[in-house]
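Q: Here's a chain of 120 amino acids. Please give me its 3D structure as tokens.
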Amino acid sequence: MTAHDDQITCLALSNSGALLASGQRGENADVVVWDFNAKKPIFRLSEHDHEVVLLKFSHDDKLLISCGNQLDGRMFIWNTLNGHIVCSTQLIPTILLESPNCCAWGGFTKDVKLRPTVDY
């Protein structure tokens, strides 16, 4: 399983065990999503710079969150079915003063307008 060109800084295993995500440091701080059973990369997510410090799959493995370090300061949510960005935000310095070191997904019961979230 080789797809990175610098030191791997974080890993996340999907809840089903079918996917593995790995992040690296360096100028092209990519996230690679792997088919764990086949040991082959599925997607290379190339939006971070400097270092990826955090990866976490959603409860249904359809989404992956990635956060960059202090210099990168960005957070992305990725669709694991097609590798596309679902949303992104600049965390540092607009929301946080330093890079996060943990995260957790919510319950996915209802959104802020109390609508069911089963379909998204």
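Q: Can you summarize the key feature?
A: DSSP finds no helices and eight strands in the chain.
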